[in-house]
Design goal:
The longest helix has 11 residues. The radius of gyration is 15 Å and the shape is globular. It is mostly helical. Strands 1-2 form a two-stranded parallel sheet. The chain contains five helices and two strands, in the order αβααβαα. α1 packs across α3 and α2 crosses α3. It binds a DNA duplex through α2, α3, β2 and α4.
Length: 119
DNA sequence: CATTTGACATCTT
DNA sequence: TAAGATGCCAAAT
């Protein structure tokens, strides 16, 4: 893949791979997109999305498993929770998603599989 | 062109 | 455990 591809495009590509009923953290998406340590960019890339886009932006949460509130106070975070619950993703009383159970594990290696991701 | 801001993560008090 | 500081980068101002 060309390195010159737009960062946002790469980010959207990774987010699009998150399967239904699972979530990924901003940092995780950044790492998978080849942008280690640039978790902030993920949110910006997602906010730039069009409403018509099919990218599952709602499957991205912060490192605590919580839905990040918008600065401008837009109610999108509520829609995000609704969409996740619609996919059977559960929240605990602290409004946190148990990442142990719902975190997306790309290319879940079968036992004995010698797959390694990006060096 | 310099600053500010923003859907974060991680380290350091 | 909680609160503050820092790194990072693209867009908006």
């Amino acid at each position: 893949m060309p390195e010159s591809a737009d960062l946002y495009e790469r980010i959207h590509s990774v987010v699009s791979r998150i399967p239904r009923g699972r979530v990924a953290t901003y940092g995780q998406v950044a790492r998978l997109a080849g942008l280690p340590g640039q978790a902030r960019l993920i949110g910006y890339a997602l906010s730039a999305l069009d409403d018509r886009s099919r990218v599952p932006w709602h499957r991205v949460v912060n490192a605590q498993g919580r839905i990040s509130a918008r600065r401008d106070g837009s109610p999108m975070s509520i829609l995000q929770r609704l969409r996740l619950e619609r996919e059977q993703v559960r929240f605990d009383v602290r409004r946190c998603i148990p990442l142990d159970l719902f975190r997306w594990r790309p290319a879940q290696g079968a036992p004995g599989c010698t797959f390694r991701r990006q060096t």
